[in-house]
Amino acid sequence: MSTFTHSELDEAFGRFQRTVAEIAVTRDWDRFAELFTEDADYVEHALGTMSGREEIRAWIWKTMTAFPGSHMTGYPSLWHVVDAPTGRVICEVDNPMRDPGDGTLITATNITILTYAGNGLWSREEDVYNPMEFGQAAMRWCEKSAELGTLDDDAARWMETIGVMFARRR
Fold first, then answer.
1. Can you tell me the distance from the alpha carbon of 124 to that of 50, in angstroms, rounded to the nearest whole number?
2. What's the rounded Cα separation, in Å, for the pair 66 and 72?
3. Cα dist from 93 to 38, 41, 54, 114, whole Å
4. How many distinct helices (H) and strands (E) make up the chain?
5. 17 burial class (0-12, 13-18, 19+ CB within 10 angstroms)?
6. H/E element holding 137?
7. Is the pTM of this model over 0.90?
8. Where is the chain membrane-spanning (predicted)?
9. Closest listed residue to residue 108, CA positions, set 88, 81, 128, 80
10. Is 49 helix (H, G, I), strand (E, B) or coil?
11. Dihedral (C-alpha) 47, 51, 55, 56: value to the nearest 10 degrees?
């Protein structure tokens, strides 16, 4: 059972969201890792569990500096629920990608479960999502960018390798 109040959890989540919004602009992923306790777990269903802040740090830098993470512009919560008895916040996170050049909005969402540890730190994050939905969104972005002549080298490599699994069958 949690010792945190609904209000404390809601405020901590608000700080978390504001920090993540800043990180989306600065791309300083060390700050993201610093949101977690030294012994935190980060459960990422498609890639496994990162144990400890330093594993989270290495994973987040690798993930968010390569396509498609490198092309996501923010991670706003669309809604959230505070579960004070468990010390958790559950939310739906939007992951919009940068404008491919014509104003098109391409995004995918996930459900995140955060467990609060106190003092502004989180002891666990679990992201639940459909990898196919994310892959298809990334491929749509690549196709639109290629059509507009704005496809960069990193995205082109992804499109030609991993992206083939998400190509629309015509």
1. 10
2. 10
3. 24, 19, 23, 12
4. 5, 6
5. middle
6. helix 131-148
7. yes
8. none
9. 128
10. strand
11. 70
E strand or H helix that includes residue 136: helix 131-148
Rounded CA separation 31/36 (Å): 10
pLDDT at residue 39 above 90?
Answer: yes
140 φ, ψ (degrees, to nearest 5)? -60, -40
- Cα–Cα distance list, 58 to 2, 127, 143, 154 (Å): 29, 17, 30, 19
Are the C-beta atoms of 90 and 81 separated by less than 8 Å?
Answer: yes
Q: Which of 28, 43, 22, 58 is nearest to 122 (CA)?
A: 43
68-95 pLDDT, tens digit each: 999 999 999 999 999 999 999 999 999 9
